[in-house]
Design brief:
This protein has 365 residues and is α+β, with helices and mostly antiparallel strands. The protein has 11 helices and 15 strands. Helix 1 packs parallel to helix 4 and helix 3 (138-165) runs antiparallel to helix 4 (170-180). It starts with 14 loop residues before the first strand and ends with a helix.
Length: 365
């Protein structure tokens, strides 16, 4: 359980990091960018060879990851590391980096990043190595998902531990930002915004940074499509340029809006489950509406996918990705809304057994 920490908010002061380059060669070309804790590129600069003092001064209110590309003649060296109030010396001739006072905050963030990358690579490799035809079989797919869920739980627990152990700290905030954006296919920002917001409000009141403000904005956007929101008056434009009011496609007692794409493996893995649910409840006025973000030029592939996945029994539309991001705040796939005939969202982003359980709750069997 996350315990509240009632401390007055304080603005983070600017911290200075000096990066010094050492090399026998006088002329070299430097490109660098800084990336904040949210993964947003904040600065991107290019320095020509006339870098007289051969050093960079980075001033930030929060830890940032710096990505450097240094070109000496035909040779190119790349470095990436976290910085915050430090002195960094890079010896280009020895290809070595020296941190005078490697800050504990950046050390913890770097360790978190390394751990999660390792586990994510293991999880992703399961998908890449398995042919879709094999993976699509329910029994095999369920086993792989169990393994992926176990790996995902380890990553989540790592972040949760940091949040509990480091309230009102920058490394704790980094852990929350990463936890909130997981899992990739249905992030907590998208389907559990109130929980994330509660953790943020009670555990990080002292921290005021751009990354925290960005997380707060994302949570506000997500809350617009939380249960209780009526979306019946929203108009969407399909790939053919035809505009449709949402309420005109709501013809059932319960409607599942399925946001998907032909290239989205997770989306198509859910289709057999949707088909099973549709066949069970279609006589009780369950309606499914497929909203695909595929482009018009891929129309033949889209039609082929509908035929292959056997989802042609319900309505399908091609919609603009940017439009559904703006109007419905759908920015991850797969996503779905469970709505009633009046266009009010009952629930969202339920998949597999959770969606089946919701249908049993709504239809009574």
């Amino acid at each position: 359980m996350f315990l509240p920490t009632m401390i007055m908010a304080k603005f983070q002061r600017l911290k200075n990091t000096v990066i010094v380059f050492k090399s026998e060669e006088q002329n070299f070309h430097i490109e660098f960018k800084t990336i904040d804790m949210s993964g947003i590129i904040k600065h991107k600069n290019v320095y020509a060879s006339a870098l007289n003092k051969k050093k960079l001064l980075i001033r930030e209110k929060e830890p940032v990851k710096i990505a450097l590309k240094i070109i000496k003649g035909v040779k190119k060296h790349e470095y990436a590391f976290w910085i915050y109030n430090d002195y960094v010396e890079i010896n280009l001739d020895l290809k070595a980096i020296y941190f005078k006072s490697y800050d504990s905050i950046t050390a913890k963030i770097a360790l978190l990043e390394q751990l999660t990358h390792k586990f994510n690579d293991i999880s992703d490799s399961l998908i890449r190595k398995i042919p879709y035809t094999i993976f699509a079989s329910p029994n095999f797919s369920n086993r792989v998902h169990l393994i992926q869920d176990s790996i995902s739980n380890i990553v989540d627990k790592t972040y949760e531990d940091y949040i509990r152990q480091n309230p009102n700290s920058l490394e704790g905030l980094y852990a929350l930002i990463k936890l909130a954006s997981r899992p990739i296919e249905r992030s907590r920002i998208s389907y559990d915004a109130y929980t994330v917001d509660s953790i943020l409000k009670f555990n990080f009141v002292k921290i005021v940074t751009s990354s925290k403000r960005r997380l707060q904005r994302e949570l506000m956007k997500s809350k617009k499509n939380m249960p209780g929101k009526n979306i019946s008056k929203i108009t969407l434009t399909d790939a053919l340029g035809s505009k449709k009011r949402m309420h005109k496609v709501f013809k059932g007692k319960i409607i599942v809006l399925d946001f998907w794409a032909t290239w989205c493996g997770y989306c198509r893995q859910e289709h057999p489950n949707l088909l099973k649910i549709f066949n069970k409840y279609k006589s009780d006025s369950l309606q499914i509406v497929g909203l695909s973000v595929d482009q018009l030029r891929f129309l033949p592939i889209w039609k082929e996918a509908i035929l292959k996945d056997k989802t042609g029994e319900w309505q399908h539309y091609l919609v603009d990705l940017e439009e559904i991001k703006k109007k419905l705040n759908v920015d991850v796939l797969p996503s779905n809304f469970i709505i009633n005939s009046k266009g009010v969202i009952i629930d969202k982003n339920l998949f597999g057994k959770k969606l089946e359980a919701k249908m049993i709750e709504l239809f009574g069997y």
